[in-house]
Design goal:
Layout (H helix, E strand, L loop, with lengths): L30 E4 L4 E5 L5 E4 L7 E4 L5 E7 L2 E9 L3 E5 L9 E2 L9 E5 L2 E5 L5 E4 L7 E3 L10 E10 L2 E9 L6 E4 L7 E2 L34 E6 L15 E6 L1 E5 L7 E2 L9 E6 L7 E5 L3 E5 L7 E2 L8 E6 L6 E5 L7 E5 L8 E2 L11 E9 L2 E8 L3 E6 L2 E6 L13 E4 L6 E5 L3 E5 L7 E4 L10 E4 L7 E5 L3 E5 L15 E5 L3 E6 L5 E5 L8 E5 L7 E2 L3 H6 L3 E6 L4 E6 L4 E5 L1
Antiparallel strand pairs: 1-2, 2-3, 3-4, 5-6, 6-7, 7-8, 9-10, 10-11, 11-12, 13-14, 14-15, 15-16, 17-18, 18-19, 19-20, 21-22, 22-23, 23-24, 25-26, 26-27, 27-28, 29-30, 30-31, 31-32, 33-34, 34-35, 35-36, 37-38, 38-39, 39-40, 41-42, 42-43, 43-44, 45-46, 46-47
Length: 589
């Protein structure tokens, strides 16, 4: 971490007066480098323009504090000239970027600049709903480009890039809510424009190009030109132009629904994502009885199943559902249970004998629990009796036997959960179940969920913390991870309580952000630790009940595992980490 001084906007714009909602959020060119003078510039969310002269360690404000900035652009022929786009406030310029940095508004500039591009003597602006603009005289006069090929009033033009092609400006512009005109290009400096996303036959679904595997998200709304696609950034001009048109053949788009690429200057488009890509994966579960059978519940796409340890995945969500929160597998039957919903309504549990081939069955939780959100689910079958346990946010613990639901505890899970999580642990064949309600503590049932007793008052209100795991090789050994402390081991947890002094938790792994935990079939315990200022994400393993630990993560894990939400260790040696924003990481022992 070089510095936390410049602050940008991720997905927290909702409710901020004067700025758009989280889509489109601030993306694209928010940093600009003057390598010749060792200056780095940042367009922040509300702190204005900042400059660093030491590689990003310290920062000096240059102006526009309070404005919501959307993009930066240097004039290559005059490195001291820097253009800045401010939302609902036009384009600003300084001709003293490396010294005083004084910024002045350019009169007549587009009101809502989203991204800027300098090519030769031209400044191009993606101007939101107003369209695409150009000035050739430093802003004295402006020209709106594109006519009907760059429609205005509905689409939000938010990304722009380009390069010189044998003396001509080649410019790409991208918009959300533009339908077939989502990506347009001019090869003659703005005189004429062509849509690159008008023909759906040229939007392909094989990963990486012709002959690749079919992308799992095969739906029209999520491709360039689709109703949900957001072209947040476009990259081109990185390879030497070829052919009579002097066009760079390679183009990349980044935005909602991932990265797309073209190797023929935008004629054909292919997804450049493998597997789940960038998603908020809430839960991952590996079937202990079927090698490679793996399930993912996530906030974006609800549910995926895989037969090859997530090398390939297939979406299979219950009709009408929008988010998955937790998954359980009945160890006796292999039946899969999926908790779904959002914090305000539509909480439900579904089950399927085999999601790859069978439909989902609605378990009817919403009809008794007022649609509140189920945060944790567990299930087992004893003889012919199937028992389903669900921890419901703000509505207690619910138990279903056969076709009948009963609320078995109204004290646990009685409040809103700031961490957006809870954890259930139930060893196969056992009558003892454990629940971690992050706001009240650890609870235990010794009669398959009929009655519950709180055994430890411990809290874990930080997202990505607060998990339980049972050691299959040592009945009664319970592991608890909690914010501010770390991972605790409780031996003999099937009886007694910490509160009464008859159980003694032992801190075996100290960390203020200890996250998901799991115990392998051999009793090896794993813990995922999230990233923090100056601290890289890591995955650690102990084979001696927490006495000693070995770091199992590598550089890839450290870069992508910063926000862990769930951990699963499969009997075949695969290790799965569900993350908040980086999909699911897959490793092996």
């Amino acid at each position: 971490m070089l510095s936390t001084v410049p602050q940008f906007s991720g997905s927290t714009n909702e409710g901020v007066a004067g700025v758009p909602s989280i889509h489109p959020r601030s993306t694209g060119t928010l940093l600009a480098e003057d390598a010749s003078g060792d200056h780095l510039y940042a367009a922040t969310f509300a702190q204005g323009v900042m400059r660093s002269d030491d590689g990003g360690v310290t920062w000096k404000p240059l102006g526009l504090a309070g404005s919501h900035l959307r993009g930066l652009a240097f004039d290559p022929s005059s490195p001291d000239t820097l253009y800045v786009g401010a939302y609902n406030d036009g384009v600003y310029v300084t001709t003293h970027a490396s010294t005083t940095g004084t910024l002045s508004r350019i009169a007549g500039s587009p009101t809502n600049p989203e991204e800027l591009l300098v090519l030769g003597d031209s400044l191009y602006v993606a101007g939101g709903k107003d369209g695409v603009f150009r000035t050739r005289d430093g802003g004295s006069t402006w020209q709106q480009l594109g006519g009907t090929s760059v429609p205005t009033g509905g689409p939000i033009w938010m990304s722009i890039t380009g390069y010189d092609a044998c003396g001509r400006d080649v410019v790409y512009a991208g918009a959300m809510s533009a339908g077939k005109n989502a990506i347009v290009r001019t090869a003659d400096g703005g005189a004429t424009w062509t849509s690159l996303t008008a023909d759906p036959a040229l939007i392909h679904h094989t990963l990486g190009g012709p002959g690749g595997r079919t992308w799992w998200l095969n739906q029209a709304s999520s491709v360039p030109g689709g109703s949900s696609y957001v072209p947040a950034s476009i990259l081109t001009g990185t390879f030497p132009p070829v052919g009579t048109g002097c066009l760079d053949p390679n183009v990349l788009l980044a935005g909602r629904a991932g990265v797309w690429g073209s190797r023929d200057a935008g004629q054909d488009w292919y997804p450049m994502m493998q597997g789940l890509g960038v998603t908020i994966a809430r839960d991952v579960a590996a079937d202990p009885s079927v090698t490679g059978r793996t399930f993912v519940g996530d906030a974006d796409w609800v549910f995926h199943h895989s037969s090859d340890a997530l090398s390939t995945v297939t979406q299979k969500k219950p009709p009408g559902e929008t988010a998955g929160t937790d998954i359980a597998i009945d160890p006796a039957t292999g039946r899969v249970f999926l908790a779904t919903g959002n914090p305000t309504k539509n909480g439900e549990v579904f089950s399927s004998a085999n999601p790859a081939t069978n439909a989902w069955t609605d378990e009817g939780l919403s009809s008794v629990a007022a649609g509140r959100l189920p945060l944790a689910v567990a299930a087992q079958t004893f003889g012919t009796q199937r028992i389903l346990i669900v921890a419901v946010e703000g509505n207690g613990i619910w138990r279903k036997v056969g076709g009948t639901w009963a609320k078995v505890n109204g004290v646990a899970m009685a409040t809103w959960q700031p961490s957006r999580g809870a954890s259930l642990a139930w060893a196969p064949g056992s009558s003892t179940i454990f629940l971690f309600d992050h706001e009240s503590g650890v609870w235990r049932s010794s009669d398959r969920g009929m009655t519950w007793t709180k055994i430890w008052t411990i809290h874990s209100s930080v997202s990505g913390t607060g998990y339980l795991a049972i050691d299959p090789t040592a009945p009664g050994r319970l592991y608890v991870s909690a914010a501010a402390s770390g991972v605790w081991r409780i031996d003999g947890a099937t009886t007694g309580s910490v509160t009464a002094g008859t159980l003694t938790p032992t801190l075996v792994f100290s960390s203020p952000v200890a996250g998901p935990i799991d115990v392998g079939s051999a009793g090896d315990v794993w813990v995922a630790v999230g990233a923090g200022p100056g601290v890289a994400a890591r995955l650690s393993r102990s084979t001696d009940a927490g006495a000693t630990w070995t770091v199992m993560s590598d550089a890839f894990y450290a870069a992508a595992g910063g926000f862990p939400l769930d951990l699963a260790v499969a009997p075949d040696g695969h290790v799965f980490l569900a993350t908040n924003g980086d999909g699911v990481l897959v490793g092996s022992t």
